[in-house]
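Listing S7. Sequence submitted for prediction.
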Amino acid sequence: MDMQGQRVLHVAQAQAWDALNDPAILKSCIPGCDKFELTEANVYNVGVAIKIGPVSAKFTGKVTLTDIEAPNSYALNFEAQGGVAGFGKGESKVSLHPHADGCELQYTVHSTVGGKLAQLGQRLIDGAAKSLAEDFFKRFDDALQAKYPQAQGTTASTDDATESAPSTGSVPMWVWLALLVGAGAVWSLVR
């Protein structure tokens, strides 16, 4: 799976950077996530329960941040196992750029899934990925607004945010990683 996209976040770039590097915020925003813990410098263990079509499983894995250029960008490498449900692995590049309404998050994702997940078919996986990504960004927008209530543009609607977030495929990897834990999201980031 390969995808790329962008999303306008209605907070300052430094605030978005802090939130994207806050395990507690990420854990609360990733659907089904029960673990997002720093285990060593720039390495996180992740646990996520997901259901896609007839396949539901608990995925566990790790996310490693590399090429960190705070507060502008980083790369994520992830891998996750879900037992017989399958596995996911891949990489994502995430960058933040100034925008008139706050900042713009841009991402690219390359991932591979195997096992039962890979047998579900691309349409089902893409549909689930879009739904999970939308759920993640709704939660992430809410978390940003709660943490930074004075941030610029906090009254923007979810529909406006969705329109500014085109996608070219499946799920954002870092989000997938935690979402499909092993295929993203987090981080991944989104539709």
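Caption to Listing S7: primary sequence and predicted structure tokens for the chain studied. The longest helix spans residues 122-147. Helices lie at 13-20, 23-29, 116-119, 122-147, 158-163, 173-179.
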